[in-house]
Specification:
single chain, 344 residues, alpha/beta, Rossmann fold, eight-stranded mixed β-sheet, 11 helices
């Protein structure tokens, strides 16, 4: 994989008033930042062993499956407002008017309850496995963008990780980050229960549902996907099952939720890669963590470990191509390769 421009690792103990870039030039290395702890921690998430007679899959399996617990359709309220999400009705149609003045109709934008599932060739349910949940951004569909343009399933397959993909459809091809049903406390946990059943069916071994229902989970959110990811991390009901959060030029807000999650679960990892549009928010989050004596780094030069936090500059990448070209080419593949306990 082709490395891109970045910074050296750091531990910061001062405010970042001048911005992230200005303070990182003379920082110590990742190893210095984490000290002796880095050499003793196990790679995250913690592997677990599953008993099954099923062998490795001979062919990859990919499917779009309708879920009853999908984020949309959603007929509830917008959190913190007490107002219905579908706040427009005209000629029998319901729609949502966004805070930016855009109007999207339910039947066109908020009615797709499908979820992209992918199990790579060689996946072995008997070995420690991971559940990768991908939160897409604005203007996306599962087939056109997540599957083909961003090649998320392909990156998981090529990583060699014993991992599966779960990618729910949010607003269809729209400039809207709404989380829908995932705003509701515990709703994401119910979604993951349905995902375990659907993956077991796709896998072909009914008993594999036990593995899928207990495997550690990693969130990967791109761009506007941050809003749903933050809600699910705090209110989703996964608790210690959520072992990592990755933001791909996605930290546009919800700093309080991400700070709280990082601070309250020091056994999970957090990686946020950024370009110009999210640099300031990454700087603010880095400052908040520094104030809480939480170490972080600005490059990945070894496997990921428990409690690792990293802020990565995206170099000369573009926002649209960030899922395939970030600090390295194919960043999801790169991150999964840094979890050696989960090889196929």
């Amino acid at each position: 994989m082709r490395p891109r421009a970045g910074f050296s690792g750091i531990k910061v103990g001062v405010a970042l008033a001048a911005g992230l870039v200005a303070l990182l030039a003379s920082a110590p290395s990742w190893a210095e930042a984490r000290g002796a702890r880095a050499g003793t921690q196990a790679a995250v998430p913690q592997p677990h062993q599953v008993q099954s007679r099923s062998g490795p899959l001979k062919q990859a399996r990919t499917s779009l499956v309708a879920f009853q617990t999908a984020p949309f359709p959603y007929r509830g309220n917008v959190p913190g407002t007490g107002k219905p999400f579908l706040n427009i009705e005209q000629d029998g149609r319901r729609g949502h008017s966004t805070p930016y003045g855009r109007l999207y109709w339910e039947d066109e934008t908020y009615s797709d309850n499908r979820v992209l599932l992918h199990i790579p060739k060689g996946f072995d349910v008997r070995r420690p496995s991971l559940m990768i949940v991908f939160f897409h951004g604005h203007g996306a569909t599962l087939e056109r963008d997540v599957l083909r343009r961003q090649r998320v399933a392909d990156q998981i397959s090529k990583s060699g990780a014993n991992a599966v993909l779960i990618a729910p459809q949010f607003a269809v091809d729209a400039a809207d980050s709404s989380a829908g049903r995932f705003w509701e406390p515990g709703a994401f946990g119910r979604f993951m229960g349905e995902a375990a059943e659907a993956l077991a069916k796709l896998h072909g071994d009914p008993k594999s549902v036990r593995s899928f229902a207990s495997s550690p989970v990693i969130f990967v959110a791109y761009s506007g996907g941050y809003l749903a990811a933050a809600s699910c991390a705090i209110n989703g009901g996964l608790k210690k099952r959520l072992r990592g959060v990755v933001l791909l030029d996605a930290l546009y807000g919800e700093l309080g939720k991400f700070t709280s999650w990082i601070e309250n679960d020091r056994s999970a990892f957090f990686v946020s890669a950024y370009l110009g549009s999210t640099r300031e928010k990454n700087s603010e989050l880095a400052e908040a963590l520094s104030a809480r004596d939480i170490d972080y780094a600005t490059e990945l030069d070894r496997p990921l470990h428990q409690g690792d936090v990293a802020f990565l500059a995206g170099g000369d990448a573009s926002h649209r191509s960030f899922v395939t070209q970030a600090w390295v080419d194919n960043p999801i593949e790169d991150l999964l390769r840094r979890l050696p306990g989960y090889k196929r």
